[in-house]
Each structure stands twice: as structure tokens, then as C-alpha cells.
Give the backbone structure.
Amino acid sequence: MKVGKKIFALLLSAAIIMNASVIDALAEESMQKPENPEENITGRAAYAAEVSGQPYQSLQDAVDSVADSGTVKLTDHITLQEQVTIPSEKTILLDMNGKTLSVGFSDSSQNLIVNRGTLIIAGKGGFDAAGAARYRGFLENYGTLTVENGVFQMPDEAMTVHLRNHGTALIEGGSFSGGATIVRSYAGSHTTITDGDFTNHIYPAVDVNGETLITGGTFTNTSCSSCDPNNWGYTIRSGCDKDPDARLTITPASEGSVVVTGTQGGLTAISGTMEVNGGTYRTVDCAQQHGHIFYALYVAGEKGTVQAVINGGTFETKGNVAAVLVGNSGDGGVKEQAVLQIRGGRFLAPENVPAYKVDAPLGELNVSGGTFSSVVEERYLAEGCMQNVNGAVGPAEEGFAAAKIGTAYYQTLAQAVDGANAGDTITLLGDIDLGSGSITIEKAVTLDLSGCTIESSNNVYTLYMKAGLTVRDSKGGGVILNTGSGPQNIAVVVSEVGTEAYFESGMASGYYALFVQKGAKAVISGGRYEGTFAGVSVLGLNDEANKTSVEVKGGEIQGGSYAVAGKGTADHTEIVITGGTLISRGNAAVSVYRLEQVGGQWVTNENTHVKNYLAALTISGGSFSAGSKKGVFEVEKKAADNVAATGGHFTSDPSEYVPEGGAAPLYVVASDKPGYAYMVTPTAPVEVDPIVVEKTESAVSETIGAQDKTKIEAVIGKAQVSGVSDAVTESAQNVIIDQVEQALTPSDKVVVEITVRLTAAESDLNAGEQSYLSYQAAPVAKVTVNGEVAKENMEVPNTYLDSQASIEVRLPVPADMTLQEIMHISDDGTRERYLSGSGFTVEDDGCAVLHVRHFSTFVLSGQLTVAARIGNTDYGTLQEAVNAANAGDTIVLTQSCDEQVIVSGKSVTIDRDGHAYDESRLALGSYCSMRVSGDKIMITYSAPSGGSSAGGSPSYNVSLPGKVTGGDIKVSPRNADKGDTVTVTVTPDKGYELDKLTVTDQKGDKLELSDKGDGRFTFKMPADRVEVKVSFKLIGAKPEVPAFTDVPADAYYADAVKWAVEQGITLGDSADTFAPNASCTRAQMATFLWRASGSPEFEGVNPFADVSAGAYYYDAVLWAAEKNITNGTAAAAFSPDGLLTRGQAVTLLWRANGSPVIHRDINFDDVPADAYYAEAVRWAVSEGITAGTGSNEFSPNAPCTRAQIVTFMYRDMR
């Protein structure tokens, strides 16, 4: 490079001195005018050129008139009939003056100009050969030539050369096009190109022999061997004449100053030496798109030995061959050795095309620098060098090595793993992209992410650990990432018996962040673990000697559905949590399921046989946060005994899993940690029996306009919320009371007042159908002790409410507003829509009445919302559309939204159609994966095949009836995870209407259905398969109610009797009597309750000796016993014919409702506080089912009549 720079400096200096001498000579020059200035060689009355103002008829005359040095200025366009020669003793500045020199002769031995002296071409003129048939070229230089500018054009068919250089030539600019070659230098010559545009279509634009320096210029050759097999070439070629001293040096004067483009090839050296210090060299397709694209850099000994050095520049090919070829044993020529040293630059080829190719033994490559689009083989790397993950080659040190162990550097992580010994620490030195590959580690080593990322798009896992491994991140920001599109792509798998992996810091992310299986153990003491489905999944198999286990001591674990998902057996799987933060964005923080063996495989689905193989969970610390309206734990019923919470902080009540009867009692109390409602502690709270009351407060926000405010204030006093005091769980009551700072005693009278503050927050009541009004509901608690306020304005979050309790909300509707829907929008973005006439009703007082299970924002609208569409069917929320979609459907958004949506058990596409929706708002069920392309969000459900080693919750089947008379029924999805929303759509035939719709689990328990209107009902999927039953009836057809002669129309029980007959609970005592005052038997009561529950089937063991299989009450009694509604009157006895007392009646009805606890005083003198029926009576009175028999008496031991029984049930179930 130093030699090249010296030559360039000398040439520039010579040019400056030469120009100065020309100017001095011109000042002294004295020339004589020709005798006949009106005639030139063509006979025209014009002059060809002038020298110091003296005209000459020919250019040669003008040149000859110059004694030593001078300026020859063209005065007209000239067509030369013969070659012009610059003698060796002269220095000529040829001022083209914007004129053109054209070839007018036909002689292939002649050029336009031959220079043997010193020639400078300036004046922005032109050289043209368009009309010439034969000529040698434009310029042939044997002396010193400088081309400052000009336009040089010749046709391709001339097959000749613009400039031949045998001496010293400097090209500072100009535009050159056409011909065979533009610049051709010869042995012993010196050529410098600092600028210009060189374009030709046949042979190389520049053919180098001698010594050539290029510091600028744009060089293009469009020749293609498919277009013309006989005429093609590289754009710049060095060493074409077997010149061993040929030397090409390319040193761009600035960024972008040298650009070389070719089709058949860019830059080549076939003899001598070449040094490239920068520039851009590309090969692209020809205009005909033949695809015959050669190398951007070609170094081969076709004319002699070659030594080439690349210090910089970009070499890129768009074809299917390498960007660089070294050596070529298949081409012609002398086949000498070619050596290429790459010390810098960029070498790029399309995907799956190598950046370089070496044809050994004629080609030799040594790489010590540069960046390559493909892997550089180790044999071509210079000693002590390696290639980093970004393709750059450099010294084996940080920045070029992927990883190091001590002072040893490794090009790839796989090489570092292979080179590691037990106990070594592998430290990452840069981000690593494994593509679709993965890494398996079978050594007890430490992996230090050191702030770097390991990423893989593998559809299974990124890292697979089969030995004791420690993962840490010494610098922070390190990540193990899996971006695969598989149904269960995992960041880190910990597997095999004896493997113990320790996760101290760093981050892992995938569908599962960590997956622990096959007897392995993972200990998490720090770091962050994020899973699209679950942060950590543990899967235990049938090996009692080697448990699969996870121990969480610290760190943060997050999952879209679960933070930790445990599946396996209690004997084989163990999860121990002593610290850390576990967060679920959509469901429970921790899920625990049984795993069962079917056909030799361990699976969890609706086809499993119930076996007592369970995953075990122990919690003594940590913080647990569940998704909105979700519990912290999701535990399969038969796994509950293996779950123990002895400490920790929770967003939902963990009481069910707190062990009882231990040496040290445990208590669930108010949390001392912000953001968590409950904690488990050995410190006993003071036990008090609070009285829980409720009230409603209403207000209108000051932000609402005056006109709307007047309308709302006129009705808002009617707002009412009922049932919230019963919905607050007993544990939540204790949590509220625990916030009282003063010491309490059991004798204190404690009242918990739940106030729901209902605020009209936003409105527009003057927009016609688009009118709306939003209410915000916020419950707060106040505690009074012995009549004094002890604590008030305590937040009552939705986690304090029993998720099964029903709360009635009465929302005032302003006058003139036609209400079509109410949208219930949760804080997390989930939406529930209630439609007029089904989801809510507007009563005579102008209030919209609906029943909910949590509080947030209610939006009353004058028109139906259309959030999404499937085909021609509109849906009010995106979740409704997802629930209704069939596999393969496309859901098209009709408006922007931020709704939180759960997709499970189906493959669907959500087309945003130009609207805004963040795909991170989607929570995917198990076996679902997501891919985003433009506006389309594609969710793929890959149904499990059985015994896979993968976590997640199971999917359960929804069973439909066969042929149904009078209508059709559809369910979506047909397989769902526990907690998923399932939509049932019923469509009656013409003339029919829905009669009955029930959904029951495998035990026969009815699931609660939510009527969404338009024939759509939803329910939450349990951890079990369910059965859907439906019947339709003719419109107007109702059960014919007999005109019982003993049921007066004004009797208190008349409506109850009519209801019981219509519901099929009883048909009376005879065809025309009901016998209302007859005593009811225990068998009759059990039968009434059973029929009211839909007459579920029962298969099990009969525990009663006095209940025969043929009795009408057989199924009813066994069902009631299985549901713990009754335990009989003695061991193995039910006493079916025994008369039912009023105390027994309300007790059975109370148990059928789940035995709720009611904190309410009752004043019956004949109901002892310790009576078995006392709580049931308290409940029946609070629910308005009975008010007693009068005189402060309930008459618990009096027989219960048939009229009283149906009245109790009617009041309970209406």
C-alpha cells in the first residue's frame, strides 16, 4: 500500500509542474497565421483549431505549430481523416472547448491521437466513433497523458479500445462507454485513475499490465456469457498479458469513490500482484435475467502466479456462486498458483451460497480479517484468528470469539462446550444466533451469559442440559431465547437422572422458559424466566428412585398461562418453593395435575383412567400473583392432598392448601407486602365473628358535561348493588379485619361494611344510537369496632370475592336512552358483553339489572358493538369471535382494541385489517403457537399425540348429543383447557324455541351457563370432560299444569306449585289434587332436588341398605349422598319413608347450595346456636326462602308439608 501511495503522489506532482510550464510557454509563444484562413481540409470556410488565437485548418497543423509547449483549442467539431500525433518533444494542452473529435478514416492501425510527448485533454469535449468502421482506438499513449474530462463513445461492434497506455497516464474524469475495452495498460506502464465513469459491454472495462493505481471511478461491465458466449469479461482485470510485474492497487480516496459492477465478474487478478484497500465490487444479473452471475472477486493463475491482498472493500454477488473464488483448475491458461490474503473487507453471498470458494491446490487462502456471510473454515484462518458470530474474522480475543474458557478462546459455543472440562466456566463474549440449531451440554460446567444472548429458532429447544450445569449472568442482560414456531418450543431443557442444573441469574424465554423432566433437578435462586405458556414446567415419570424436581429459592418466573406447571406423580415429581416471585398473566401462578399411564404412555387428557398418581407441591415462601379474576393455584382435585402452603404472599386466598393439625398452626392473614392480599403465617390472628353489611353510594364525575350531568343526576339515586357482602369470602373478611391497627378481642363487636361506589365516569347522551354512559364500580371496606370506626377506605379487590357468587347490579339508565348492550370491561382488558333481554333487563324503575362476579367498568351503549367478524357474522368482542370460531376460521377485526383474549384448542387467524391490536394481549392455551405476518396473527393448535415429554395443562373434550329434534347445537372449542371459555350456540328450527340446555361434568354436576344473547351461552371448562344436553320445544308449548282442586289461586304456594309442575319436579298427588298439606318424605325431598338439578345420571356404590335399586327415588338418593347433601339417618340407612322436618328440609336445600356461611343474626327462640340446622336456617332466612312460622319460632321439628317444600325450592331457584 505504501508503494502505491508514493506513485500517486509523484504523478500528481508531475502533473502540477507540467501544467505550470505549459502556461509559461504559452505566454511567450508567437505563431504566424496561415495564408488562407478560410479553407480547411474539408473544404469548408472554417477553422479546426487555434493556438494563441491563430486559426488552423487541421488539428495536426495546430499541434505542429507549437514549438515546445502550448494550448491547442478546438474551434469546431472535427472529423479526422487521419491520425494526429503528438511528438515526443512537445507538451500540448488540448482544450476540447466542448467540441467533438470523430473518426473519419477506416484503418484499424490508426488512432484518433497518438501521444509520444506530453498531452493534457481538457475542455469537456467528446471523442466519437459512431460512424467509423475500422480504427485502433481513441488514444494511444507512449509518453505522458492526462485526461481531465470529456465524453468518449464508441460502438460495441468496433471491438477496440478507448485508451492504450504504454507510458504514464492519469485519468482524472470523463465518461467512457462502448467498445471492447476502455483502458488497457501494457508492461512497464504506469496508469492512475482518480475518477470517471467507465461502462462497456464486452471485455473488461480496465485491463491492467504494468503498474496501475485506482483511487476513484465507477466501473461497469454488463457482458454475459449467456447473452454472447464469445465476448464477455470481468469489469477490471489485472495481469492479462502474463506480465509478472503487473501490479494493481485500489485505494479509494473516500468512501464510495470506487464502485465496480459486473455480471460475468467484478474484479480479477490472473497474474502479478494486486492490493485492494476499499471500494465496492458487485456482480448482478444481466438485463435478460439469465442468472449467469459470476464472482465479485476472482484470483487465479491463468497467466502466471498471483499474489493478492485485500485490506478492505465490499465484495458481493447476487448469484448462486461464491463472492470470491481463489484458484481455478477448470479454466484455461497456465494454471499457476494463486494466493489470496484477506485482511479486511466484507464478503457477501445470498443465503445458502458460500461467501468464498477455494480450488486447491491451485488456490490458497489466508484470512486474518474481514466479515463473511458464511462460515470461514478453520484451515483458511490465519494463525491465532477466528470468526465471531457476526461473521467477522479477527484475533482470537473478545469481539471475535464466541466464548472463552480461561484464556482459551472459541469460535463457537459448540466448540467451547466440546473443549470444556468438568468444573470449567464458559463465558460468552458476544451474542450467539444458533439459527435453527441447538446446543446439548453433557458436562458439569458453568455457563456465564455475561450479558449476551443465545438465540435459536429450533422448534424444540435452544439448550439441552444432561449434566450438572450452573447458569449465571455476571454482567446482566443475558438471555437464553427460543423463537421457534413449534407448539412447545423451549429455551432450556433439563433432563436425565442425575442432572442438577442451577440457575443463578440471567433470563430464559420461550413457550416454556425451563422444562425439567426424566429425573432431573433444577434449582432456581435468581434470574428471570418468561414463558408464553409457562415459565417453568416439571414433568415426572414412573421412577420412584429418581424424582423430577424443581426448587425455587428466588428469581422471577412469569407465564402467559402459568408461572410453574407441574405434571406427574407425587412419588416421582416434586416442586418446592421457598422464595422468588411467580406471576401468571392469564391464569394461575402454579398448576398441579395428575399424570396417568395409558397404553404404556404417561398422558393427561380426557381418556385417562383415574389413578392416584400426583405431582407434589410445597410452598414455604415466595410471592404468587395470578391473572385477573384467577386464583393463585390451579390444582387437579385428586392432587390437592399433595399441595401444602406453609408460607408466602398471595393475590388470592390460599386457605384450601394450608395444612391443618400440624404441630405449629398456620393462619391466612392480611399480607404485609404491597400488591398481595394474603399471606400464610404461624402468627395467630385474633378470632372475631364479624357482621358483614353492604351499601351503595353513587356519584357523577365532574368531567361529565352539564347537560348529561343533569340527566344522570335525575336517576343515579336508583343505583344499587346487592350481594357483595355475601360474595366477600371469609378469608377476605379476616384480611380486611387484620388491617385494623388496634388489638381486638373475641368479645368485640366488629362490623365490616362493604360500600360499592358507583360513579358515572364518562358519557355522551346526545349522540343518538351512539350514545353511551360508563359507570365505574369500586368496592371499599370500613371496619367499626364497638361502634367506633377503626379503619376505612380499604380497597376490596376482585380477588376478595367468591368467583361463584352472584352479585346483582342495578345501573340507572337516563331518560331517552335506548339501551342495547352493557360491556363489562375488566382492568386487564377482558370483556364481557350483556345484551338486552338476555344478559340484562331494564325494569320499571328504569334500571338495567344484571348479575356479575366482579367489579370494574360498565359501559352502557345505545348500539351493538361490532368488534370482529367471521364471514358475515358479527361479534361484540374479540373473545366472543374466538370462542365461536371453528378451526381454520379467519377473524377480521372491525375496530382497534386492547382486549385481553384467550385462544385455546383451535387454529385460527386474526386479521387486524389495518386496525391496531397488540398480539401480546393474546394468552395461548397449551399446544398453541403464534406467528405474525403483517396484519395477520396466525395461531396454530397442534393436538397432543400422547406421551410427549412436554408440560402444560391438558385439554378436555366437550361431548355433544346426537340428532336433536327442533334445532341445532354447536360448541367451540370442542377441546378446551381448564378455565377456558367454551361457547354453546343453539339455533332452533322454525316454529321451535329452546326448552332446556344443560352442561354437566363427569360427576353429573351442572355447570353454570352465562346467557350472552342471540342463542349463545358460555361456561368455564373444568378439569374434566363435560356433556352438553339440549332440547327444543314448539313455540307456545308448555307443560300442561293440572287445575288442582286443592290449590286455591290466592294460596301463598300457588305460584310455587305451578312452577314445580312446569319444571317437571312434581306432577301432584293425583290427576286433580296436589295435597299441599300432606307431609313430605325424605325420599320425596331428595327426588325434588334431583329433578331440579336436571336428573343427572349416577354410577357408583349404593351406601344405603334401605334404598333398593328399583325404587323411584334410587338415583336421586344416591346422587344426593354423593353430593354430600345427605349422609343418611344412620350407618347404611337413609329412611326414605321418614317424614321430613322443616329443619331437615332447609338443611338439605342449604347443602345443595354449597353450605354457604352467613354472618347474620336470627331471632328464633327454638333454633339453638349449636343445632345442626342452625346455619341452614340462618341462610334460608337471609335468602328470603322462609321467615319462620311466627312468634319468633321456626318450628324446626315440625313436619314439612309438600306446599312448604315446593315454596322453599321456588324461592331458592327463581
In short: The radius of gyration is 46 Å. The first helix runs from residue 2 to 28. The longest strand covers residues 750-764.
